[in-house]
């Protein structure tokens, strides 16, 4: 019994030692050494920005930027792009891509889930998901093929989300996908695959929110407090005033009420942005909402001047997409997140939304939009002079969920038949007709996507190309009969009577231009029918 107990004790010690070795291995993998020359690297990048601003037609003032900026034709012709939210947050795959923040908010469902599945945040923090983010099946060429089959013409991966883990090869941090997790420059690989296939490439930065992202982790015992992990958890600064409750959320529409970041963080943000510009030469850069905070205003002007000058030097204009008030109107591309406009805009714009309903990144048990509804949204957006940037959330291993693939294939099938009514089109005199409006309008004309409950057969949208007018029905009438009231005989919106009407994709139709509108009888359609497109030519 004693020998058996001693053997058992030795076995336990051996197992404990092995566990310690394995734990140390995991810990070393999850502690990134910041570059020894970090300060010099930031200073070099900032000097590069200053030189870039000094050499080129764009200057960091709004009048100059407004005069010089023009949305390039390639973007106006493309109409449809793919957004990619992929990162460490796809490992827990719980609720949404804000898991990295919410797991440190006591009482939040993600906090409770984390405790139940992974244990206390002091022992297993967000950084500990990084070794599990393997991207073992990541095939950027296959991704691009899928996106092109869907009909997309440009791709925009998130190069860094608010979690602080850079999805690219950075000289400014070791907490990046090239040095940890996948150990691959995932952004660079997507860029190369896209360009090899003739697809336009952009990228997105959500770095600004990192200033306060992990603050709640400082309010209890968690690894956010450990200075060894400052490279991933960042300043973790409070959002609100000292008298505010730590968990209180300042008004997202009034960013002057948020505590501003310090100079070091702003310099780091600018250096990382310049690094992305020079390493990947994106044709479009999307900045998330917190860059609308007042402290970022000078940086927005400088970033625009630097990037636009760089793009001019590359022989092509660049696009900055923004969704707040951080850019003067006309100096960049306005974007509406999960929203649309209720009217035709004279200048190009973009709407970004996601195939998944609950999360931008991959989350288990998410629900998904239908391809029919997304095609209808695409038509509505294009008719109002906009583009659709549609998000996908790949899994941690680099595979794209089958539900998302099915949606993309459905959209691609429709665009193969009806794409001429979408690509390279321009708006008609007005966007369309019909009873359905996009819902509750927010400040700036943006409409919440969730307010749109569905379209009726009377909802028609218009686009034009050359001598052709396209009328696109957002919902197929069950009896096959549609009346397009705008196109009545003698309408002032047409220069001549209608000569011919064709249904794209074929199919027998009959039509008549009457005193009350263009009456068209379509082939019968069953449940789940997609929108349809009519090509109209004049005498």
UniProtKB/TrEMBL annotation:
Gene3D superfamilies cross-referenced by the UniProt entry: Glycosidases (3.20.20.80), Golgi alpha-mannosidase II (2.60.40.1180)
Cytoplasm found in the keyword field: no
SMART domains hit by this protein: Alpha_L_fucos
Pfam families: Alpha_L_fucos, Fucosidase_C
Domain Glycoside hydrolase family 29 N-terminal: 50-420
Alphabetized UniProt keyword annotations: Glycosidase, Hydrolase, Signal
E.C. number: 3.2.1.51
Segments forming domain Alpha-L-fucosidase C-terminal: 458-525
Superkingdom per UniProt: Bacteria
Signal peptide residue numbers: 1-32
InterPro entries: FUC_metazoa-typ, Fucosidase_C, GH, Glyco_hydro_29, Glyco_hydro_29_N, Glyco_hydro_b
GO molecular function: alpha-L-fucosidase activity
GO biological process, any: fucose metabolic process
A GO cellular component annotation in the UniProt record: lysosome
PANTHER family (UniProt xref): ALPHA-L-FUCOSIDASE, ALPHA-L-FUCOSIDASE-RELATED
Family label: Belongs to the glycosyl hydrolase 29 family.
Function: Alpha-L-fucosidase is responsible for hydrolyzing the alpha-1,6-linked fucose joined to the reducing-end N-acetylglucosamine of the carbohydrate moieties of glycoproteins.
Protein name stated in the entry: alpha-L-fucosidase
């Amino acid at each position: 019994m004693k020998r058996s107990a001693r053997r058992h004790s030795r076995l336990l010690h051996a197992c404990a030692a092995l566990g310690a070795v394995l734990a140390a291995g995991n810990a070393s993998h999850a502690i990134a050494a910041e570059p020894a020359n970090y300060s010099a690297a930031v200073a070099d990048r900032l000097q590069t920005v200053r030189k870039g601003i000094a050499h080129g037609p764009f200057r960091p003032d709004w009048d100059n930027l407004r005069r010089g900026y023009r949305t390039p034709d390639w973007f106006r012709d493309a109409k449809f792009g793919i957004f990619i939210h992929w990162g460490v947050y796809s490992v827990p795959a719980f609720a949404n891509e804000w898991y990295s923040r919410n797991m440190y908010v006591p009482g939040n469902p993600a906090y409770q889930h984390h405790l139940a599945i992974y244990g206390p945040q002091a022992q297993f923090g967000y950084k500990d998901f990084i070794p599990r983010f393997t991207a073992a099946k990541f095939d950027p060429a296959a991704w691009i093929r899928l996106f092109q089959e869907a009909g997309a013409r440009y791709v925009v991966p998130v190069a860094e989300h608010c979690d602080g883990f850079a999805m690219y090869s950075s000289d400014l941090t070791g907490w990046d996908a090239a040095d940890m997790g996948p150990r691959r420059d995932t952004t660079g690989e997507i860029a190369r695959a896209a360009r090899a296939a003739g697809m336009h490439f952009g990228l997105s930065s959500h770095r600004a929110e990192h200033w306060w992202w992990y603050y709640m982790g400082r309010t209890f015992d968690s690894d956010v407090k450990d200075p060894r992990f400052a490279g991933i958890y960042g300043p973790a600064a409070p959002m609100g005033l000292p008298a505010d409750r730590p968990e209180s959320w300042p008004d997202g529409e009034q960013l002057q009420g948020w505590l501003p970041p310090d100079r070091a963080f702003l310099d780091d943000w600018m250096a990382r942005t310049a690094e992305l510009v020079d390493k990947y030469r994106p044709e479009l850069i999307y900045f998330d909402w917190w860059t609308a905070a007042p402290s970022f205003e000078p940086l927005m002007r400088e970033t625009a001047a630097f990037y636009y000058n760089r793009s001019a030097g590359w022989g092509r204009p660049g696009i900055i997409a923004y969704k707040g008030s951080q850019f003067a109107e006309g100096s960049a591309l306005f974007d509406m997140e999960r929203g649309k406009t209720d009217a035709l805009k004279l200048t190009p714009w973009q709407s970004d939304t996601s195939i998944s309903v609950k999360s931008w990144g991959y989350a288990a048990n998410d629900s998904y939009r239908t391809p029919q509804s997304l095609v209808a949204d695409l038509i509505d957006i294009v008719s109002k002079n906009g583009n659709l940037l549609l998000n996908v959330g790949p899994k941690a291993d680099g595979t794209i969920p089958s539900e998302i693939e099915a949606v993309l294939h459905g959209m691609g099938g429709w665009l193969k038949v009806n794409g001429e009514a979408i690509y390279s089109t321009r708006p008609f005199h007005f966007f369309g007709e019909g009873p359905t409006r996009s819902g509750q309008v927010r400040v700036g004309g943006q409409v919440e996507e969730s307010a749109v409950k569905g379209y009726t057969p009377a909802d028609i949208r218009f686009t034009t190309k050359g001598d052709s007018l396209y009328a696109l029905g957002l919902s197929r009438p069950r009896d096959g009969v549609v009346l397009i009231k705008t196109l009545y005989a003698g309408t002032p919106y047409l220069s001549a009577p209608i000569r011919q009407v064709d249904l794209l994709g074929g199919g027998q139709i009959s039509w008549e231009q009457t005193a009350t509108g263009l009456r068209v009888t379509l082939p019968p359609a069953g449940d789940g029918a997609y929108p349809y497109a009519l090509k109209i030519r004049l005498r």
